[in-house]
Amino acid sequence: MSETLNPFLNAQRQVKKACDKLKLDPSVYELLKEPEKVLIVSIPVKMDDGTMKTFTGYRSQHNTAMGPTKGGVRFHQDVTLDEVKALSIWMTFKCAVVGLPYGGSKGGVTVNALELSKNELEKLSRGYINAISSIIDPKKDSPGPDVGTNPQVMGWFMDEYSKIKGYNIPSIATGKPIEIGGSLGRNQATGYGVSVMVKKVCEALNMDINKTRVAIQGFGNVGSFAALNCVKLGAKVVAVGEWTKRTGTYAVYNEEGLDVEKMFEYKAQKGDLVDFPGGKMISLEDFWKLDNIDILIPAAMENALTVENTSQIKAKIIVEAANGPITPEADEILNKKSIPVFPDILCNSGGVTASYFEWVQNLQNYYWTVEEVNSRLKTIMTKAFDDVFKMHKEQNVTLREAAYLCAVKRIADAMKIRGWV
Ligand code: GLU
Questions:
Q1: Active site members
Q2: What is the CA angle 65-66-68, rounded to 5?
Q3: CA–CA distance from 298 to each of 21, 341, 415, 417 (Å)?
Q4: Ligand 1 in reach of 352 Cβ (< 6 A)
Q5: pLDDT above 70 covers what percent of the chain?
Q6: Which atom of ligand 1 is least distant from the CA of 142?
Q7: What is the distance between the alpha carbons of residues 325 and 127, in angstroms, rounded to a whole number?
Q8: What is the pLDDT of residue 290?
Q9: CB of 92 closer than 6 angstroms to any ligand 1 atom
């Protein structure tokens, strides 16, 4: 079977399916199939050794029917125009499924950020914001973190943009350090939100979370905080799949449950989880085949589950924490195997929801406690889950289709009222 690995084509396919199912006027898909605006930039950076290097950067703003666009910036060697466009489409539907007053955007730079010095990373971050400054604004489009970027990078974004404008504009970027207007809870928010969804999944499917065994692929910002918070809610995290430069892919497994806090400490010290003493090392191939997993959480990158490894999966349920981790063909296989897939645009929406809170706090110059952030996040995501689950039952469609139906309908209604379609 030939497999579509181009995320942009996959994203378009998902949107088309929802538009057809809702029997929307073809003009709706016509407006949603491409981003409204895409900027491609060259970012020159004077490297530490004195040579000049130019990096290619992108910003894709997909749809503004619901409000200004919002989305992260990815620094990764595999970043392409099509990937950034796809990710911006997914952001539109993610924001709509949780009901945020935003459309979607995404940015990226093709670079292996791990190979840059701190000084080079700062120059690249500032150069990127300079290059896209003409199309961003807190009321138009504001960047946030994604793969390969972190609070420090957001801090440089905010500082550089503020310098360009001549006054402090914290609302231009979210996921900033707390000291310069970051929101409490933002750094943990995507993973925390995933755990809120895991709890909802257990409730909806009549499972006891205390007896639920979880496997997570990826122990970056999203996977690690998802693991930590799933454990806090009573689940057992028995396997974590990872990748590291020195050994490639691997997984850590402990039938009795991994000590996630110790894994945080170990990774902070060693840089990865190789030979973590609280579990045994297995291959990533064996990780996918584990037969005693209730919930599998892909929390790394796109296309983690392909036709090849999906046929071997024995987990009962999948909760997507990464963006686009399952190819459409793999999705079909899971569907045939009756393995429910709780989709990315719902399950990883905690990050952008907390970013929305940060933006609101920055605009008001009034700051919330971490309890306020987490409880509002939980309320918003719980309602979104209930809406999607209801749609899934009522329309007898997959959970992914249900999430797209909820989201596309909201955007289509807004576009209709605004007179766009
Ligand atoms: N990168 C996050 C996501 O994929 C959102 C970034 C933001 O908060 O703007 O959902």
A1: 106
A2: 90
A3: 27, 11, 33, 37
A4: yes
A5: 100
A6: 9
A7: 30
A8: 97
A9: no
Is residue 70 within 6 Å of ligand 1 at its C-beta?
yes
Spatial separation of the C-alpha atoms in residues 270 and 217, rounded to whole Å: 19
The rounded Å distance from CA 352 to ligand 1 centre is 5
Measured between alpha carbons, how far is 47 from 311 in angstroms, rounded to an integer?
Answer: 46
**Mean pLDDT within 18-37:** 96
- Please tell me the distance from the alpha carbon of residue 335 to that of residue 341, in angstroms, as a whole number: 8
* CATH of span 189-347: 3.40.50.720
Q: What is the DSSP letter of 320?
A: -
- Residue 256, judged by CB atoms within 10 A of its CB (0-12, 13-18, 19+), counts as exposed
At which residue do the structure tokens 């905080």 appear? 225
182 lines ligand 1 (CB under 6 A): no
| Domain residue spans of the chain | 35-170, 189-347
Q: What is the CATH number of domain 35-170?
A: 3.40.50.10860
Pocket flag, ligand 1, residue 353 (CB < 6 Å): no
Q: Which atom of ligand 1 is closest in space to residue 349's alpha carbon? A: 10
pLDDT (mean) for 148-174: 98
Residue 2 has pLDDT above 90, yes or no: no
Q: How far is the CA of 175 from the centre of ligand 1 (A)?
A: 9
